[in-house]
Amino acid sequence: MLVPKNGVVSDIIAQLKRKANIPDDVAQRVRVFEAHNYKIHRDCALTYPVMNFNEYTTLYAEPRLQEELDAGDNDRICYAFNFDREMSKSWGHPFVFLVKEGELFSATKERLSERLNVKGKTFEKIKFAVVPRSGYGKPEYLSDGK
User: Fold this and answer.
1) Full-model pTM
2) For 118, what's the count of Cα atoms within 13 Å in the CB-facing half-sphere?
3) What is the average pLDDT across 88-108?
């Protein structure tokens, strides 16, 4: 997909809409984020210049989910990624996920299972952790009681 070098993120979304035949209502909810090492680096505003991306940047585009659009004031967006034992061993596709205030972790895990389309024994093997934004701290693993 080509966009003008002096273009902005909204130009990327317009091209994506045209090439993938995305309906207008879905295209209006699309977010573009930049990832490095399988972790979200930046959620790009529609006016973010295309020339600011380096050639090794991976861009992801996805429509915001309705639950995110309906989020309460105390709900939070978190950037999620996969890692294997050590945070430096990240892999897969990072994604954005809504954390709802007061929701039990067991209910959050159900929403994660639906979002990732992973169920059963495969999902039960996954461990979840909160990782400091800086990436230098240790992950705090979560259990259903937290």
Assistant:
1) 0.84
2) 9
3) 93
